[in-house]
Amino acid sequence: MIYTLTLNPSVDYIMELDHFTQGGLNRSVKENALPGGKGINVSRVLHVLDVKSTALGFAGGFTGEFIKRFLQDEQIESEFVEVDEVSRINVKVKADEETEINGNGPSITKEQLDILLNQISALSEKDTLVLAGSIPASVPESFYQEAASLCEKRGTRIIIDAEKKLIEPVLSLKPFLIKPNHHELGEIFGVEIKSIEDAVHYGKKLKGKGPVNVIVSMAEKGALLLTGEDVYQASAPVGELKSSVGAGDSTVAGFLAGLSKGYSIEDSFRLGTAAGSATAFSIGLCDEVKVNDLFKQIEISKR
Ligand SMILES: Nc1ncnc2c1ncn2[C@@H]1O[C@H](COP(=O)(O)OP(=O)(O)OP(=O)(O)O)[C@@H](O)[C@H]1O
Ligand SMILES: O=P(O)(O)OC[C@@]1(O)O[C@H](CO)[C@@H](O)[C@@H]1O
Protein backbone atom coordinates (compact mmCIF):
# COMPACT_ATOMS: atom_id res chain seq x y z
CA MET A 1 0.00 0.00 0.00
CA ILE A 2 1.14 3.54 -0.70
CA TYR A 3 0.86 5.96 2.23
CA THR A 4 1.24 9.71 1.85
CA LEU A 5 2.13 11.92 4.78
CA THR A 6 1.02 15.56 4.93
CA LEU A 7 2.08 17.05 8.26
CA ASN A 8 0.47 20.41 7.46
CA PRO A 9 -2.59 19.86 5.23
CA SER A 10 -4.55 22.82 3.94
CA VAL A 11 -7.69 24.00 2.29
CA ASP A 12 -6.31 25.60 -0.88
CA TYR A 13 -8.52 28.60 -1.59
CA ILE A 14 -7.88 29.44 -5.24
CA MET A 15 -8.97 32.94 -6.23
CA GLU A 16 -8.99 33.91 -9.91
CA LEU A 17 -8.59 37.62 -10.65
CA ASP A 18 -8.16 39.55 -13.88
CA HIS A 19 -5.53 41.71 -12.25
CA PHE A 20 -3.97 41.86 -8.76
CA THR A 21 -3.25 45.25 -7.14
CA GLN A 22 -0.92 45.04 -4.17
CA GLY A 23 -2.15 47.22 -1.29
CA GLY A 24 -5.59 47.71 -2.85
CA LEU A 25 -9.02 46.07 -2.65
CA ASN A 26 -9.09 43.18 -5.08
CA ARG A 27 -12.22 41.24 -6.06
CA SER A 28 -11.94 37.78 -7.49
CA VAL A 29 -14.05 36.59 -10.41
CA LYS A 30 -14.02 32.90 -9.39
CA GLU A 31 -13.11 30.91 -6.29
CA ASN A 32 -12.48 27.24 -5.59
CA ALA A 33 -11.78 25.46 -2.29
CA LEU A 34 -9.83 22.21 -2.53
CA PRO A 35 -7.99 19.99 -0.07
CA GLY A 36 -4.26 20.65 -0.34
CA GLY A 37 -0.86 19.86 1.01
CA LYS A 38 1.68 17.92 -1.02
CA GLY A 39 0.97 14.41 0.30
CA ILE A 40 -2.77 14.87 -0.12
CA ASN A 41 -2.22 16.02 -3.71
CA VAL A 42 -0.16 12.89 -4.35
CA SER A 43 -3.01 10.73 -2.96
CA ARG A 44 -5.59 12.56 -5.08
CA VAL A 45 -3.60 12.16 -8.31
CA LEU A 46 -2.90 8.48 -7.52
CA HIS A 47 -6.67 8.09 -7.22
CA VAL A 48 -7.20 9.82 -10.60
CA LEU A 49 -4.79 7.24 -12.03
CA ASP A 50 -6.61 4.34 -10.34
CA VAL A 51 -4.00 3.60 -7.70
CA LYS A 52 -5.04 3.22 -4.07
CA SER A 53 -3.32 5.07 -1.23
CA THR A 54 -3.96 6.13 2.35
CA ALA A 55 -3.39 9.75 3.39
CA LEU A 56 -1.78 10.29 6.81
CA GLY A 57 -1.14 13.52 8.72
CA PHE A 58 -2.83 15.93 11.10
CA ALA A 59 -6.24 17.53 10.66
CA GLY A 60 -8.28 19.80 12.92
CA GLY A 61 -11.30 22.10 13.08
CA PHE A 62 -13.75 22.91 10.28
CA THR A 63 -11.01 22.95 7.67
CA GLY A 64 -9.80 19.54 8.84
CA GLU A 65 -13.40 18.25 8.51
CA PHE A 66 -13.58 19.70 4.98
CA ILE A 67 -10.35 17.94 3.99
CA LYS A 68 -11.45 14.59 5.44
CA ARG A 69 -14.94 14.76 3.91
CA PHE A 70 -13.57 15.73 0.49
CA LEU A 71 -11.22 12.75 0.46
CA GLN A 72 -13.98 10.45 1.71
CA ASP A 73 -16.27 11.64 -1.10
CA GLU A 74 -13.51 10.83 -3.58
CA GLN A 75 -13.17 7.40 -1.90
CA ILE A 76 -9.59 8.04 -0.83
CA GLU A 77 -8.64 6.37 2.46
CA SER A 78 -7.31 8.66 5.19
CA GLU A 79 -6.19 8.14 8.78
CA PHE A 80 -5.52 11.65 10.05
CA VAL A 81 -4.58 12.30 13.67
CA GLU A 82 -7.07 14.80 15.12
CA VAL A 83 -5.49 18.06 16.39
CA ASP A 84 -7.03 20.81 18.54
CA GLU A 85 -6.45 23.85 16.31
CA VAL A 86 -7.78 24.34 12.78
CA SER A 87 -5.92 23.09 9.71
CA ARG A 88 -4.57 26.00 7.65
CA ILE A 89 -6.07 27.78 4.64
CA ASN A 90 -3.58 28.51 1.85
CA VAL A 91 -4.62 31.30 -0.49
CA LYS A 92 -3.60 30.91 -4.13
CA VAL A 93 -4.09 34.05 -6.20
CA LYS A 94 -4.23 33.43 -9.92
CA ALA A 95 -3.98 36.77 -11.74
CA ASP A 96 -1.33 38.10 -14.15
CA GLU A 97 1.06 36.13 -11.99
CA GLU A 98 0.54 33.35 -9.42
CA THR A 99 0.88 34.45 -5.78
CA GLU A 100 0.61 32.02 -2.87
CA ILE A 101 0.07 32.76 0.83
CA ASN A 102 0.49 29.58 2.86
CA GLY A 103 -0.71 29.48 6.46
CA ASN A 104 1.39 28.53 9.47
CA GLY A 105 -0.91 25.72 10.56
CA PRO A 106 -2.00 24.25 13.90
CA SER A 107 0.20 23.29 16.85
CA ILE A 108 0.89 19.60 17.19
CA THR A 109 1.40 18.09 20.66
CA LYS A 110 3.95 15.42 21.58
CA GLU A 111 1.09 12.90 22.09
CA GLN A 112 -0.33 13.60 18.62
CA LEU A 113 3.14 13.21 17.09
CA ASP A 114 3.57 9.89 18.90
CA ILE A 115 0.29 8.58 17.43
CA LEU A 116 1.63 9.37 13.96
CA LEU A 117 5.00 7.73 14.71
CA ASN A 118 3.11 4.59 15.80
CA GLN A 119 1.22 4.57 12.49
CA ILE A 120 4.55 4.84 10.63
CA SER A 121 6.10 2.08 12.77
CA ALA A 122 3.33 -0.26 11.62
CA LEU A 123 4.30 -0.01 7.92
CA SER A 124 6.07 -2.97 6.32
CA GLU A 125 8.41 -3.81 3.44
CA LYS A 126 5.33 -4.01 1.19
CA ASP A 127 4.56 -0.33 1.80
CA THR A 128 5.74 3.00 0.39
CA LEU A 129 5.65 6.22 2.39
CA VAL A 130 5.63 9.58 0.58
CA LEU A 131 6.94 12.36 2.85
CA ALA A 132 5.93 15.61 1.21
CA GLY A 133 5.76 19.27 2.08
CA SER A 134 6.72 21.55 4.93
CA ILE A 135 6.84 20.70 8.62
CA PRO A 136 4.65 22.72 11.04
CA ALA A 137 6.60 25.00 13.39
CA SER A 138 5.66 22.87 16.44
CA VAL A 139 7.11 19.67 14.93
CA PRO A 140 10.89 19.10 15.29
CA GLU A 141 12.79 19.60 12.04
CA SER A 142 14.30 16.15 12.50
CA PHE A 143 10.86 14.54 12.05
CA TYR A 144 11.34 13.36 8.45
CA GLN A 145 14.68 11.86 9.46
CA GLU A 146 13.00 10.03 12.36
CA ALA A 147 10.14 8.81 10.14
CA ALA A 148 12.56 7.74 7.39
CA SER A 149 14.76 5.84 9.90
CA LEU A 150 11.70 3.92 11.11
CA CYS A 151 10.87 3.06 7.49
CA GLU A 152 14.45 2.01 6.73
CA LYS A 153 14.41 -0.46 9.65
CA ARG A 154 11.20 -2.06 8.38
CA GLY A 155 12.13 -2.01 4.68
CA THR A 156 9.40 0.50 3.78
CA ARG A 157 10.15 2.46 0.59
CA ILE A 158 10.61 6.20 1.20
CA ILE A 159 9.87 9.00 -1.23
CA ILE A 160 10.65 12.54 -0.17
CA ASP A 161 9.69 15.87 -1.71
CA ALA A 162 10.58 18.75 0.58
CA GLU A 163 13.00 21.62 1.05
CA LYS A 164 16.77 21.23 1.36
CA LYS A 165 17.08 21.16 5.17
CA LEU A 166 14.44 18.38 5.41
CA ILE A 167 15.78 16.29 2.51
CA GLU A 168 19.48 16.37 3.33
CA PRO A 169 19.41 14.26 6.53
CA VAL A 170 17.37 11.57 4.72
CA LEU A 171 19.64 11.12 1.68
CA SER A 172 22.01 8.62 3.29
CA LEU A 173 19.00 6.37 4.06
CA LYS A 174 18.78 5.82 0.29
CA PRO A 175 15.20 7.00 -0.36
CA PHE A 176 13.60 5.41 -3.42
CA LEU A 177 12.85 8.80 -5.00
CA ILE A 178 13.44 12.46 -4.40
CA LYS A 179 11.98 15.15 -6.68
CA PRO A 180 13.47 18.60 -6.38
CA ASN A 181 12.59 21.24 -8.98
CA HIS A 182 15.60 22.89 -10.63
CA HIS A 183 15.56 25.84 -8.16
CA GLU A 184 15.59 23.45 -5.18
CA LEU A 185 18.38 21.39 -6.79
CA GLY A 186 20.42 24.59 -7.14
CA GLU A 187 19.78 25.52 -3.49
CA ILE A 188 21.09 22.14 -2.31
CA PHE A 189 24.48 22.91 -3.93
CA GLY A 190 24.43 26.70 -3.50
CA VAL A 191 24.38 27.30 -7.26
CA GLU A 192 21.91 28.54 -9.88
CA ILE A 193 20.82 25.91 -12.40
CA LYS A 194 20.90 27.75 -15.73
CA SER A 195 20.78 24.91 -18.27
CA ILE A 196 19.78 21.28 -18.75
CA GLU A 197 23.51 20.42 -18.60
CA ASP A 198 23.69 22.04 -15.13
CA ALA A 199 20.60 20.08 -14.04
CA VAL A 200 22.15 16.80 -15.24
CA HIS A 201 25.46 17.58 -13.52
CA TYR A 202 23.93 18.49 -10.14
CA GLY A 203 21.22 15.81 -10.45
CA LYS A 204 24.05 13.22 -10.71
CA LYS A 205 25.81 14.76 -7.71
CA LEU A 206 22.58 14.53 -5.72
CA LYS A 207 22.01 10.91 -6.74
CA GLY A 208 25.55 10.20 -5.58
CA LYS A 209 24.46 11.09 -2.06
CA GLY A 210 22.16 8.05 -1.81
CA PRO A 211 18.71 8.22 -3.48
CA VAL A 212 17.83 5.40 -5.88
CA ASN A 213 16.00 7.71 -8.32
CA VAL A 214 16.09 11.47 -8.73
CA ILE A 215 13.55 13.42 -10.78
CA VAL A 216 14.47 17.05 -11.42
CA SER A 217 11.35 18.89 -12.55
CA MET A 218 11.87 21.99 -14.66
CA ALA A 219 8.33 23.39 -15.18
CA GLU A 220 7.71 24.10 -18.91
CA LYS A 221 11.12 22.62 -19.74
CA GLY A 222 9.94 19.16 -18.62
CA ALA A 223 11.97 16.93 -16.31
CA LEU A 224 15.01 14.71 -15.92
CA LEU A 225 15.08 11.22 -14.41
CA LEU A 226 18.34 9.86 -13.04
CA THR A 227 18.11 6.13 -12.42
CA GLY A 228 20.94 3.58 -12.20
CA GLU A 229 23.58 4.87 -14.63
CA ASP A 230 20.91 6.32 -16.95
CA VAL A 231 19.66 9.87 -17.44
CA TYR A 232 16.32 10.38 -19.24
CA GLN A 233 14.97 13.73 -20.38
CA ALA A 234 11.23 14.31 -20.85
CA SER A 235 9.85 17.17 -22.90
CA ALA A 236 6.87 19.03 -21.46
CA PRO A 237 3.91 19.46 -23.79
CA VAL A 238 2.95 22.99 -24.82
CA GLY A 239 -0.34 24.25 -23.38
CA GLU A 240 -1.99 27.05 -21.44
CA LEU A 241 -0.64 27.30 -17.88
CA LYS A 242 -3.71 27.62 -15.64
CA SER A 243 -2.16 26.98 -12.22
CA SER A 244 1.06 25.21 -11.36
CA VAL A 245 -0.11 24.42 -7.80
CA GLY A 246 0.37 20.68 -7.32
CA ALA A 247 2.24 20.12 -10.63
CA GLY A 248 5.28 18.69 -8.85
CA ASP A 249 3.10 16.50 -6.60
CA SER A 250 1.38 15.18 -9.73
CA THR A 251 4.79 14.27 -11.22
CA VAL A 252 5.58 12.18 -8.13
CA ALA A 253 2.13 10.54 -8.19
CA GLY A 254 2.29 9.77 -11.92
CA PHE A 255 5.74 8.16 -11.61
CA LEU A 256 4.59 6.06 -8.65
CA ALA A 257 1.33 5.13 -10.36
CA GLY A 258 3.24 3.95 -13.43
CA LEU A 259 5.52 1.72 -11.34
CA SER A 260 2.50 0.35 -9.40
CA LYS A 261 0.82 -0.56 -12.70
CA GLY A 262 3.96 -2.39 -13.86
CA TYR A 263 5.01 0.19 -16.50
CA SER A 264 8.68 0.40 -17.47
CA ILE A 265 10.72 3.07 -15.68
CA GLU A 266 10.66 5.15 -18.88
CA ASP A 267 6.87 4.99 -19.23
CA SER A 268 6.43 5.66 -15.49
CA PHE A 269 8.51 8.81 -15.99
CA ARG A 270 6.36 9.68 -19.02
CA LEU A 271 3.22 9.26 -16.89
CA GLY A 272 4.73 11.47 -14.17
CA THR A 273 5.53 14.22 -16.67
CA ALA A 274 2.08 13.91 -18.26
CA ALA A 275 0.38 14.19 -14.85
CA GLY A 276 2.54 17.23 -13.92
CA SER A 277 1.68 19.04 -17.16
CA ALA A 278 -2.00 18.03 -17.00
CA THR A 279 -2.17 19.66 -13.56
CA ALA A 280 -0.33 22.78 -14.80
CA PHE A 281 -3.02 23.06 -17.52
CA SER A 282 -5.87 22.83 -14.93
CA ILE A 283 -7.28 24.82 -12.02
CA GLY A 284 -6.87 22.21 -9.29
CA LEU A 285 -5.33 18.83 -10.09
CA CYS A 286 -5.31 16.85 -13.34
CA ASP A 287 -7.98 14.47 -14.61
CA GLU A 288 -7.45 11.10 -16.27
CA VAL A 289 -8.48 12.22 -19.77
CA LYS A 290 -5.95 15.07 -19.81
CA VAL A 291 -3.18 12.84 -18.46
CA ASN A 292 -3.83 10.12 -21.07
CA ASP A 293 -3.92 12.69 -23.84
CA LEU A 294 -0.59 14.28 -22.80
CA PHE A 295 1.03 10.87 -22.16
CA LYS A 296 1.07 10.29 -25.94
CA GLN A 297 2.68 13.68 -26.62
CA ILE A 298 5.66 13.39 -24.29
CA GLU A 299 9.00 12.52 -25.81
CA ILE A 300 11.61 10.83 -23.69
CA SER A 301 15.23 10.78 -24.77
CA LYS A 302 18.20 9.08 -23.17
CA ARG A 303 21.12 11.47 -22.58
N1 LIG B 1 4.12 25.74 -17.88
C1 LIG B 1 4.16 24.41 -17.96
N2 LIG B 1 3.96 23.80 -19.16
C2 LIG B 1 4.00 22.44 -19.27
N3 LIG B 1 4.23 21.62 -18.23
C3 LIG B 1 4.44 22.17 -17.03
C4 LIG B 1 4.42 23.58 -16.80
N4 LIG B 1 4.66 23.84 -15.49
C5 LIG B 1 4.81 22.62 -14.91
N5 LIG B 1 4.70 21.62 -15.82
C6 LIG B 1 4.80 20.17 -15.60
O1 LIG B 1 4.77 19.88 -14.21
C7 LIG B 1 6.00 19.28 -13.79
C8 LIG B 1 6.37 19.82 -12.41
O2 LIG B 1 6.48 21.24 -12.48
P1 LIG B 1 7.50 22.09 -11.61
O3 LIG B 1 8.88 21.84 -12.07
O4 LIG B 1 6.99 23.50 -11.66
O5 LIG B 1 7.34 21.42 -10.18
P2 LIG B 1 7.26 22.07 -8.74
O6 LIG B 1 8.05 23.35 -8.70
O7 LIG B 1 7.57 21.01 -7.76
O8 LIG B 1 5.70 22.38 -8.72
P3 LIG B 1 4.75 22.88 -7.55
O9 LIG B 1 5.63 23.21 -6.35
O10 LIG B 1 4.09 24.08 -8.17
O11 LIG B 1 3.83 21.74 -7.33
C9 LIG B 1 7.02 19.61 -14.89
O12 LIG B 1 8.05 18.65 -14.95
C10 LIG B 1 6.12 19.60 -16.13
O13 LIG B 1 5.87 18.26 -16.54
O1 LIG C 1 3.56 24.89 2.73
P1 LIG C 1 4.02 23.64 1.99
O2 LIG C 1 3.70 22.40 2.77
O3 LIG C 1 5.42 23.72 1.52
O4 LIG C 1 3.17 23.59 0.63
C1 LIG C 1 1.77 23.48 0.68
C2 LIG C 1 1.20 23.69 -0.71
O5 LIG C 1 1.52 24.97 -1.26
O6 LIG C 1 1.76 22.71 -1.58
C3 LIG C 1 0.77 22.15 -2.42
C4 LIG C 1 1.22 22.21 -3.85
O7 LIG C 1 2.41 21.51 -4.02
C5 LIG C 1 -0.51 22.92 -2.14
O8 LIG C 1 -1.63 22.09 -2.23
C6 LIG C 1 -0.31 23.47 -0.74
O9 LIG C 1 -1.07 24.62 -0.48
TrEMBL record:
<dbReference type="GO" id="GO:0008662">
    <property type="term" value="F:1-phosphofructokinase activity"/>
</dbReference>
<keyword id="KW-0067">ATP-binding</keyword>
<protein>
    <recommendedName>
        <fullName>Tagatose-6-phosphate kinase</fullName>
        <ecNumber>2.7.1.144</ecNumber>
    </recommendedName>
</protein>
<dbReference type="GO" id="GO:0016052">
    <property type="term" value="P:carbohydrate catabolic process"/>
</dbReference>
<keyword id="KW-0423">Lactose metabolism</keyword>
<comment type="similarity">
    <text>Belongs to the carbohydrate kinase PfkB family. LacC subfamily.</text>
</comment>
<keyword id="KW-0418">Kinase</keyword>
<feature type="domain" description="Carbohydrate kinase PfkB">
    <location>
        <begin position="6"/>
        <end position="286"/>
    </location>
</feature>
<dbReference type="InterPro" id="IPR017583">
    <property type="entry name" value="Tagatose/fructose_Pkinase"/>
</dbReference>
<dbReference type="InterPro" id="IPR029056">
    <property type="entry name" value="Ribokinase-like"/>
</dbReference>
<dbReference type="GO" id="GO:2001059">
    <property type="term" value="P:D-tagatose 6-phosphate catabolic process"/>
</dbReference>
<comment type="similarity">
    <text>Belongs to the carbohydrate kinase pfkB family.</text>
</comment>
<keyword id="KW-0808">Transferase</keyword>
<dbReference type="Pfam" id="PF00294">
    <property type="entry name" value="PfkB"/>
</dbReference>
<dbReference type="GO" id="GO:0044281">
    <property type="term" value="P:small molecule metabolic process"/>
</dbReference>
<comment type="function">
    <text>Catalyzes the ATP-dependent phosphorylation of fructose-l-phosphate to fructose-l,6-bisphosphate.</text>
</comment>
<dbReference type="InterPro" id="IPR022463">
    <property type="entry name" value="1-PFruKinase"/>
</dbReference>
<comment type="pathway">
    <text>Carbohydrate metabolism; D-tagatose 6-phosphate degradation; D-glyceraldehyde 3-phosphate and glycerone phosphate from D-tagatose 6-phosphate: step 1/2.</text>
</comment>
<keyword id="KW-0547">Nucleotide-binding</keyword>
<dbReference type="InterPro" id="IPR002173">
    <property type="entry name" value="Carboh/pur_kinase_PfkB_CS"/>
</dbReference>
<dbReference type="GO" id="GO:0005524">
    <property type="term" value="F:ATP binding"/>
</dbReference>
<dbReference type="GO" id="GO:0005829">
    <property type="term" value="C:cytosol"/>
</dbReference>
<dbReference type="InterPro" id="IPR011611">
    <property type="entry name" value="PfkB_dom"/>
</dbReference>
<dbReference type="GO" id="GO:0009024">
    <property type="term" value="F:tagatose-6-phosphate kinase activity"/>
</dbReference>
<dbReference type="GO" id="GO:0005988">
    <property type="term" value="P:lactose metabolic process"/>
</dbReference>
